[in-house]
Amino acid sequence: MNKNLEVKEEIKNEIEWREGDMPYSTQFGDYFYSKTDGRLECNHVFINGNDLQTRFTSEQSFVIAELGFGTGLNFLETARLFHTLSPDGAKLEFHSFELFPMMSNEIDKALAVWPEIEAEKQRLLNIWPSSFEMYQVFQFKPNISLHLHVGDVNEIIHQTDLRADAWYLDGFSPARNHAMWNENLMQAVSDHTNSNGTLASYTAAGWVRRNLQAAGFTIKKCQGYAGKRDMIRGVKLLA
Questions:
Q1: Structural contact between residues 154 and 191, judged by C-beta atoms closer than 8 angstroms
Q2: Is this model's pTM higher than 0.85 or not?
């Protein structure tokens, strides 16, 4: 993993709260999750898109990687599901790359709407730091670890030995955050994916699909969430 553990300077994504508790990034001009229901979106796009309900029941060791930790919603919903479905002794390693980690009070406010993950949220808040290093590991539960990589993913992903079984591609909209979806980064995602590893994303932008296909993924468009026409699922081709 990242060898350099120097403490990062204070960095922050400016957030506005719209409609009471909806976090909105003024830097990227986008919401952190679906205005309809971010938790249901997580399940539709990332959980179902990577077929995790089936895979969690049979795997003893599983690694998920994510572009964009945001509020932590995807991680908490994934941890809740893994705890429910996984066999005895199974372990989950969850890696997330985030340029602007939210503060604990912001996470608390953003996730308050979902009582289904209240216990998981409180567990996260109990271990969440007030300042961040480039790479930190949090033992969320005895069998679930959260690996937080802080910085520009285009640079720091090359400093890891990560090999993921599934990816959540959840950066802000490609139209507003081009750097999170560029060709070189999609190739790095592929390089850090096990054979037959999968990915899922809410976006089906043509140039994103082409970047992923060029990196070695087969890509399929599927029904999006909450009236959105398309999302994508992908599988890494065997070498």
A1: no
A2: yes
